[in-house]
Design brief:
Chain lengths: 193, 193
DNA sequence: AAAAATATCTTGACAGTGTAAAGATTGGTT
DNA sequence: AACCAATCTTTACACTGTCAAGATATTTTT
C-alpha cells in the first residue's frame, strides 16, 4: 500500500496493463517489460508473480475470458427457454468478438483450450464457455424430451460450437466484404436455422 | 551456383527453411536468423530478398496455402457434380488441417485474409481457397437451377466457409475429447447435412 | 518488541531477436 | 575492360525474456 517499494497489487495491475496493451496494439505489442513499465515497476518485477511470460498471458486470457463469459451468461439468462438460450448464446458468442476482434486473435491465436464433448462425465476442467454450451444443450434436450445417442449429442455440440466459432473467426480474422449486416443477420438467424 | 559467396536461390531456400522450422517447432520457433542459418548464410542475408520478417512469413504462408489449394482442388476435381464437390471440398478443408494442426495455427493464427462474399463482382484478389469455394457454389446453384437473392447467396457462402473453418479451428486449436472419429464423421456428413 | 523468515522489488547481466548501415564479392551489361 | 546492380558479410543497436544477486518491506516467530 505504501507508495515506495511495494506496489500493493502488482499481479492484478500487470494483468490490467496487459489487457490495455492488447486493446491498444494487439498481442504483438505485449511484452513483459512494457507491462512492467505501465505499472511503474522494474522490468524483472513481474517474476515475483509469474513464472513466465506465458503465465502472464494465461492470466490475461483468463481475465478476458471472464468478460466473455459474462456476455454469454447474460445471453443465456435473458432467454425464456433453453432453445432460445442456445440461439442467443451463439449470437452473443459471435457478437462479442465482432466488437473486439483483437480479443479473438489474442484468445485463439495460438492457444489450446480443453473441452470434453462427452456429456456423461465430469467436465469441470472444460473451457468455461464450452461448459455453458454443454449445460444449455442438455437443458434443451431435456425440455424438448429429445432422445439422442451419445455420439449424436457430441456431434450436435461440435456443430453448435464450431459454427459459432467459425463465424467469429471468419468475421474477425478476415477482411470479409459483405452486403449485409452480420449483426442483424445473427438476429435474423444466420447461425441456427 | 558457385558454392562460395552467392547462394543461387536463397529466396526459395529461406521459404523452405521456414516451412521446415514450422513443421518442427511451430511458428514460435521461426526466426529470420534461424532460417538464414539453415541456409548457411549470414543473418542479414534475407534482407536482400525480403523487406521484413513479415514479408518472409507472407511468402511461407503463400507456399503452405499452395499445398492447401492442391488438396482442395483435388477434392473438387474428383467429384462428379458441383454438389458433391462442395461437400468433399469442405471435408478436404478440415482434413488437411487435421493432419497438420501447426499449419492451421500458422496460417490463421494472426493473419488477415481477403474475401468478397459478393458473387457479382471481380474477386481475383480473394483468398484462393475462398475463391474456389465461391466458384464451386455458383456452379452448384447453376446445376440445380437454384434462384437465390444476392444476400441469400452471400449468407450461404458465409455458412459454408465458416462451418468448415470453425470445425478445423476447434479440431486444431483445442484439446477436444470426443468418442467418435472426426475424419469418419466428415465422410458421414457432419459438415453439410 | 526484537529477530528471523519470507515476499516483493531493483539492478545488472546475458543470449537471442529484428533491423539498419557500410563494405565486400559476384555476375551481367555496355 | 570497366562499370553497375544484385547479393552477401560484418558490425552495431535497441529491444526482448530470463536469471542471479542484492535491497527493502511485510509477515511470522520467538
Amino acid at each position: 500500500m505504501s507508495d515506495s517499494y511495494h506496489h500493493g497489487n502488482l499481479r492484478q495491475a500487470l494483468i490490467d496493463a496487459g489487457v490495455k496493451i492488447i486493446n491498444e496494439s494487439g498481442e504483438g505489442g505485449l511484452s513483459l517489460r512494457k507491462a512492467a513499465a505501465l505499472c511503474e515497476v522494474s522490468h524483472a518485477a513481474p517474476y515475483a508473480h509469474f513464472k513466465d511470460k506465458d503465465e502472464l498471458i494465461e492470466a490475461i486470457k483468463a481475465s478476458v475470458t471472464e468478460q466473455f463469459m459474462q456476455k454469454l451468461q447474460c445471453a443465456v439468462n435473458g432467454a425464456p427457454d433453453a432453445e432460445s438460450a442456445l440461439i442467443s448464446m451463439g449470437n452473443g458468442y459471435v457478437a462479442f468478438f465482432l466488437h473486439k476482434p483483437d480479443y479473438f486473435k489474442f484468445l485463439f491465436g495460438n492457444q489450446n483450450i480443453t473441452a470434453h464433448l462427452s456429456t456423461d462425465k465430469e467436465y469441470e476442467e472444460d473451457y468455461p464457455p464450452f461448459k455453458l454450451l454443454k449445460d444449455t444443450y442438455l437443458r434443451f434436450t431435456a425440455e424438448k424430451k429429445i432422445k439422442k445417442s451419445k455420439t449424436e449429442q457430441e456431434m450436435d455440440l461440435l456443430k453448435l460450437w464450431s459454427s459459432a466459432h467459425g463465424l467469429a473467426a471468419i468475421a474477425c480474422m478476415s477482411q470479409v466484404k459483405m452486403s449485409f449486416d452480420l449483426e442483424k443477420a445473427l438476429e435474423g438467424g444466420i447461425l441456427l436455422k
